[in-house]
Every structure is written in C-alpha cells, then in structure tokens.
Amino acid sequence: MSDSRLRGILPHLDRASRELGRRRDNRIVRGLARIARPFVHTVDGAARSYDMSVNGEAWLLGRVAPGAVVLDVGANVGEWSEIAIDRGAAAVHAFEILPATADTFAANLGGSDRVALNRIGLGSEPGSVTVHYYPDNPALTTTATAFPHSLPHDEVVVDVITGDQYLESTDIDRVDLLKIDVEGEEPNVLRGFLDALGAGRVGAIQFEYGVVAALSRFLIIDFYELLQPLGFELGPLLPDHVDFQPYNLSLERFEYVNWVAVHSSRPDLRSKLSPG
User: Which structural domain, as residue segments, surrounds residue 24?
Assistant: First the structure.
C-alpha cells in the first residue's frame, strides 16, 4: 500500500478506534481485542526485546558498522561491541564504569586490536558519581536513587569525564555511531558531547529509553529538544528500520526501546536506516 493511500485511511481508522473505545464493554469488541492482542504484542515486542538479534540493534550495526568508528558507552560485558566488530567496525571505543564488569569485558574482547576499553564513565562534566551496582545483573547499573529493582546492590563511587574530552585526547575527528546504554544517564552523556554534536562530528546516536526516564525526568520530548536543534532527526529503532518521525505525545510510553538519531550531514546513514 502506498503512503498516500495509507494517509487516506488513517482518519477512518482513528474514528473506528474511538468508536470501539466507547463500546469496549461490548462482547464482540472484547473478542476482537483478544484476537488482536497477540499480533500487537508480536509486532511491538520485538523492538522491546533485550535480544539484539531481534530488536534491531544487530541490524543497525550491520548497516552502520562496516568501516566505522563507534563508541560503546555503557559497554557492560561486551556483547554490543562484539557484534560491532563482527559487523566490520574499524574501531570500537568502549566505556565501562564498573571495575568488575570491565574485567569481564576485557576477558571477552581483550584480544581484539580494534577495541579500546576505557575503565571510566562519561558524563556532563568531569568528576565522580555514585552508581548502584547489581552484581547478579551488572546491566542494571545506574545512578538513579530510586531504581525499580529490589535486588542486592552495592554503591560504588567512580570517575567520569566528558565525551568531548575523550575525543580531544584521542584525536578522534569523527564518530559514525555513538551508542549509549547507561540506565538513565543518557542525557548527561549527551551533554558531555555537545561540542562534537554541534559540529556535526557524530553521525548517528543510539540511545535507550524506558521506565528509568520517569526517574531521570528526561522524556522523549527532551531528547528531541536537545538533538533536533543540533541537526539530528530521531525515531525509534524497529527490527529492520528506524521509524524517523516528528515528536508526538504517543511516543512517551515508558517502555524499553532503543532510539536512533541521525545527523543531517549523514544522508548516507539516513538512507541505510530508512524503510525499504
């Protein structure tokens, strides 16, 4: 179906949706909802999965990584960096803030000459932060003080620098893909790259958005307002494309999903990540 035909039927679908909502107690409407629920769960659930082979992350790296310089901020034990290398990344600069987790990363990928592991975090300014570290699930490591996990954890004070400082110290003049997965610290990491972002030196950004946004109080609209003036176009990452779109309130779902922002100076990346 063409885009023009689809736009033509959207108002009819909207009216039908409102009418069904008014009749949600009707036996037939409830039956239709039960039939549709598994399909909707299947379509949306893939993008919300933590499995990189189905949620679009591996697909994204397949499109962007060949020959690319990528930064893995919140590298954990190295799964994402390993896929980036497998997909042909020229260099991976990984950042893992927890010493024990960084040790595991090094054991997994320390043999690759294309991987630089930095045992430090990135933030909006240099200094130190206190993180909550979950030994049984290090991927949950966060600076949030009211994280919704009742699991044993330790408080660890760790050092951070800014992304701009790192790029300057390593003479990296361009970043093809900046991946950020830091459980709520995404805004501060981005603020630490403002010089590079404003200069168009970062081609694409992948960041996580989910329930932790309620704690950090940084919503999707805030990502739009931060990145759009710097020349970025945004959209949620789906299993086989990025759904670039203007901001609307329905995007504020507080459900785990990855997002992608592409700079206007990289139409090649925009084309690779679009549908079709």
Answer: 3-47
Q: What is the pLDDT of residues 164-215, one digit of tens each?
A: 999 999 999 999 999 999 888 899 999 999 999 999 999 999 999 987 777 7
Q: What's 115's DSSP letter?
A: E
Residues 88 and 216 in one domain: yes
Within 8 A by CB and 6+ apart from 7, the residues are none
Shared domain check, 39 and 57 = no
- 18 with 85, same domain? no
Domain tally, the chain: 2
The rounded distance, in Å, linking the Cα atoms of 61 and 174 is 17
Do 58 and 43 belong to one domain? Answer: no
- Tell whether 134 and 194 lie within a shared domain: yes
**CATH number (domain holding residue 84):** 3.40.50.150
Does residue 17 sit in the same domain as residue 124?
A: no
Measured distance CA(200)–CA(263) in Å, rounded: 7
Q: Strand pairing of 69-73 and 91-95?
A: parallel
Amino acid sitting at position 74: G
Exposure class string for 89-120: b at 16+ Cβ within 10 A, else e: bebbbbbbbbeebbeebbeebeeeeebebbbb
Question: Distance between CA atoms of 61 and 86, rounded to whole angstroms?
Answer: 9
Which helix (DSSP H) or strand (DSSP E) does residue 131 occupy?
Answer: strand 127-133
Distance between CA atoms of residues 173 and 203, nearest Å: 11
Mean pLDDT calculated for residue range 231-255: 94
Are both 24 and 55 inside the same structural domain? no
Q: Provide the pairing of β-strand 202-209 with 257-263.
A: antiparallel
Percent of the chain residues past pLDDT 70, beyond the cut: 80
